[in-house]
Amino acid sequence: MERTSAQLNELEITYQYGVSLDSLGLDNSELVRSDFIFVFTFILKISRQTNSNPIFEYLIFYRYQKSQFIRPHLCSRYKYLTLSHLFRVKIQTLITSALIVSSLYLIWLNCARNLERRYASKYAVVTGATGGVGQEIVAEMLKTMHVIAVDRDEQLLTDLVLKHKSSKNLVLPFVFDFTNKLSTFGPKFDSFLRQYNVDKLDVGMCFSNAGIGEFKQFEASSFEAKARFMQVNFSSHLAISDYFCKLFLTRTHAKSALIVTSSLITGTCGRFFALYHTSKTMLSALAASLYSEYASKGIDVLAVHPSSIANTKFMKGEGMKTLDSFASKYISHIGNLWISVTPKQIVAQMLSRVGKLNQTFVGFATVLNAIQGALLGRNLNAFLWSKCTFLDKLFTKNQ
Ligand SMILES: NC(=O)c1ccc[n+]([C@@H]2O[C@H](COP(=O)([O-])OP(=O)(O)OC[C@H]3O[C@@H](n4cnc5c(N)ncnc54)[C@H](OP(=O)(O)O)[C@@H]3O)[C@@H](O)[C@H]2O)c1
């Protein structure tokens, strides 16, 4: 008498497991009726009877199934249920999809925006316009619109205007020192716009980029100096954000952009740069909060985090003149390390990421630093830095 496939399966199961379906209270018609239900009932029952783990039993069952002890018509269905098969499919699919999605995402991220179409802006405001990054922003923005260059030094602004006098767009100089009373920024800027006959609604982009560095022991400066530092490095951005968010909300005909220059240092708290870390962390937090509040109202807010930047005045600033000549020499070289990025790279990221992200990181060192900052957290980061006492000796060795 020829055996049915169900009877064959029953024989194989009995042979492999040493149990009959009868003893498990299963009917071999279930093998035919529903393979799926059968497998799970079978595994549950056998694990109960042998007092073992159902997952373990399932894996054994799968091994038998793979070695063809169980009929192919069963295998073809089970293979979609097996853990390892599912896992294998997932890994392959996951890797392939992740590669495709991340490549497409990177291409999209790096595509330059059509600024004219998105912002319909005739003027871009740039603070810190005579610095390394600022000059690059000015040069790039002049390709599509006029620039209002903000800086504390009138002579440097005049030089900047002359440098671009053959450009098809204008550089308008606005002298403002962010160590002055910040509440005067708005009224002074308003009268500046009136003086140059600029319609406020034509100002659709602002780069809040001015900033200074500080590398010294916390106790080495007076409270007044600390307050001044925080005013330039954070409150100036607050004043700019206050003015431009309000202005941009009135630009109902197009989107607007507020881009702030933060730093790699947000990912690390550490010895000698307490204030710089604090000011830039506040700035990045402000940008993220403003993004969440205003993205739906047509304002793109972006914080850009560069690592050390090549060829800017930053490292030669007053606050970077550290405690002895060895330290100064060391610090002045940071800007030209192989991990440094160029102002061009920073501006390219500003203009391609705006409206897509609210935080962006320029250079692999910044990306790594942001990851370690997130992984270690403030507790561990500060603990590790607290153990770096050798830095004190290094930076104060002549004292
Ligand atoms: N360089 C780096 O390694 C680095 C790394 C990460 C982030 N950043 C950030 O990148 C931004 C641009 O820096 P940068 O490298 O281009 O430095 P930079 O060449 O020194 O430029 C800084 C700009 O800020 C202006 N500024 C400073 N204090 C001011 C004040 N009180 N009022 C008005 N303007 C003031 C400077 O004006 P003057 O020209 O008149 O001095 C200059 O135009 C800063 O926010 C900085 O914190 C720099």
Return the CATH topology of the largest domain.
Rossmann fold
Helix content: 40-55%
> What global shape is seen?
elongated
Class from helix and strand fractions: alpha/beta
- Label the CATH architecture of the largest domain: 3-Layer(aba) Sandwich
Q: Please give the largest β-sheet.
A: 7 strands, parallel
Number of domains: 2
Strand content: 5-15%
Terminal-residue CA separation: 103 Å
The H-level CATH homologous superfamily of the largest domain, spelled out, is: NAD(P)-binding Rossmann-like Domain
Keywords: Membrane, Oxidoreductase, Transmembrane, Transmembrane helix
Transmembrane segments: 87-108
Protein name: Putative
Pfam families: adh_short
Descriptive report:
The structure is a single chain. The chain has helices at 5-17, 29-33, 35-49, 54-66, 72-78, 83-110, 115-119, 132-141, 154-163, 185-195, 223-249, 274-294, 325-334, 343-353, 364-386, 390-395, and strands at residues 123-127, 146-151, 171-175, 203-208, 256-261, 299-306, 359-362. Helix 11 runs parallel beside helix 12 (274-294). It has 16 helices and seven strands. The protein is elongated and about 100 Å long. A seven-stranded parallel sheet has the order 3-2-1-4-5-6-7, sandwiched between helices. The chain has two domains: 5-79; 115-395, 3-Layer(aba) Sandwich (Rossmann fold). The termini are far apart. Mean pLDDT is 84; it is low at 68-86. The protein is α/β, with parallel strands linked by helices. It binds NADP nicotinamide-adenine-dinucleotide phosphate.
